[in-house]
Design brief:
Layout (H helix, E strand, L loop, with lengths): L1 E6 L2 E5 L4 E5 L3 E5 L7 H11 L4 H10 L5 H18 L7 E7 L11
Antiparallel strand pairs: 1-4, 1-5, 2-3
Length: 111
Amino acid sequence: MDIYTESVIDQIYDKKNKKRKKKTYGEVSASDHDIPMSAHKARRVVDQIRGRSYEEALILLEFMPYRACYPILKLISSAAANASHNKAYNKADLIISQVEVNKNPIRPFDL
């Protein structure tokens, strides 16, 4: 499962050219592997938070009744911590832009 967050686009008014410039920030990512859960169950939760702000996604994940919410909540919190610590972004400005859920490898005792 990979989660990419990016902060909102700020519009800066350029006084010389009298135009608005868009200042974009880079992406910050966090990934987690080998979560013992089916991809279908995780995608059901991930589809609800894609494109939402960080704070709104946290609220949704806290109150959704699915088992997949807790690992995704930890992963989003990790991505936000990476953004605030490594790139000094504000957590309130983060938007979840891309979320991927891939199928896990089959464990030997599942055979």
